[in-house]
Amino acid sequence: MTAVRAHASVLHLDLDAFFAAVEQRDKPSLRGKPVVVGGTGGRGVVSTASYEARAYGVRSAMSTREARARCPHAAYLSGRFEAYRSASAAVMAVLRDCSPLVEPLSLDEAFVDLAEAGLPDLEVPTVTALAEELRARVHEVTGGLTASVGVASSKFLAKIASDLRKPDGLVVVEPGTELALLRPLHVSVIPGVGPATVERLRRAGVHTVAELERISQEELVRLVGKAQGHSLFHLARAEDDRPVVPDRETKSVSVEGTYETDLTDRQQMSAIVTRQAGEVARRLKGNGLSGRTVSIKVRLYDFTTLSRSSTLPAPTDDPATIARLARTLLEDLDTSGGVRLLGVGVSGLADWIQEDLFAAAGDEPAEEAAQETPVDQRAEPDQAGARWRSATWAPGMDVVHAEHGRGWVWGSGRGVVTVRFETADTPPGPVRSFRADDPDLERWRPPEEEQPEAQ
DNA sequence: TCTGGGGTCCTAGGACCC
DNA sequence: TCTGGGGTCCTAGGACCC
């Protein structure tokens, strides 16, 4: 389970000071000068500092305030993500040209499985030549960006190797030399070992990987927990057989914002959360996703961070549904004292809703689905989301407009929209289905005016 | 005016079911 | 009357990554 490949066939590529480098590429006057990309406001932090700025002690995640104190003459830029995305796409294309197994970790980092690259062999000279060629091609297609690359027999070692000769460097770890490379290094080089873990290990007298290797698995689990304990036990021995996985699925979509001054106005908070919910919904739809769990995040004036979530019976990508639930969750929190950050997210993502809907989108789509598996979800009156949970749901159905008049209107998410009017004390009205782009959908109204008032 | 934004993964407790 | 497990789902919080 923890075997290591016999060859150095995992490549990790990391673009150097990526955001800052793109800025220097596009604006020649910035070349050779300190450049800091990140939040430029009073509560901003540094995202990327160019190597010229790093010489002044500016680092990622440092507050921009502190960066300005250390390097007042740097150029402070808020970032142009379209340019970064485009440069990143060009780099990933180069990597995919080399091997079908490319796993991007972020805009500026990826693993490549060289075992699928069609090389004549995987000996060190061969993979070294390929790595140099990749670095040259990245430089070419990005108009001059440099990348640092590590090649080794596992993801773990490849990632560590790419860090060893930054910037613009290449390290190929000869199979069999992994432990010799690893043992003298500080435990903080291990991905997943952050400040909290470093401190726990330090108290146990562990600073280097060599010292980590002397701790028993039971002791490690006691120190840092089950999952991380087992992981560290193996990584300290350079044991890592994790595969390179392309196309990892998105698990959540969220939007958050930190405000220059703390928010105290509940109505303003409500408006912000509503806007954020709309943005989350837009991005869900844009990616063909929907999710069941809506979460909010609230960071108070003193930096304590609260989260609340609520899970719907069926996935949604509807802005009104997400917004209403988010506002309900917010209502239950004490925000007196001020709020510095608000956020909205959706998780429990389901791409299967598409197939379900289209499978059910034949002749009598949602009606059939509703009859098959009606679920009466009567929630406690004060429970988050109770207002639209307290009606009849069928899996795969979504709210398109809720609380229209005295009842509810139901609809399905992607491609086909199903609408029906019902109230707590009347039977459901007729079900009608529209294609999402059908203009008749917008014109559809609940038949409440035509119906006699039912009791 | 210390401390961004977008994510992933893990833990722990309670509800609920068998 | 007291005493059981395990598995899954949900929620809240925290560590970590780039």
Explain this structure to me?
- The protein is α+β, with helices and mostly antiparallel strands and 455 residues long.
- It folds into 4 domains: 1-174, 2-Layer Sandwich (Alpha-Beta Plaits), CATH 3.30.70.270; 183-235, DNA polymerase, domain 1; 252-368, DNA polymerase, Y-family, little finger domain (Dna Ligase, domain 1), CATH 3.30.1490; 380-449, Roll (SH3 type barrels).
- Helices cover 36% and strands 24% of the residues.
- The protein contains 17 helices and 19 strands.
- The protein has helices at residues 18-26, 51-54, 64-70, 81-98, 124-141, 155-164, 178-182, 195-203, 209-213, 217-224, 226-235, 266-286, 319-331, 352-359, 365-372, 386-389, 439-443; strands spanning 10-15, 35-38, 46-49, 75-77, 102-106, 109-113, 147-152, 170-172, 252-263, 291-300, 305-316, 339-349, 375-376, 392-393, 398-404, 407-411, 416-419, 421-422, 432-435.
- The strands form 6 sheets. The chain has a 5-stranded mixed β-sheet. A 4-stranded antiparallel β-sheet has the order 9-12-10-11, covered by helices on one side.
- α10 packs across α11 (226-235).
- The longest helix has 21 residues, at 266-286.
- The protein is globular.
- It starts with 9 loop residues before the first strand and ends in a 12-residue tail after the last helix.
- The protein binds a DNA duplex (18 and 18 nucleotides) through residues 18, 38-39, 41-48, 60-66, 105-109, 191-197, 225-228, 248, 250-258, 260-262, 293, 295, 303, 305-311, 340-341, 343, 345.
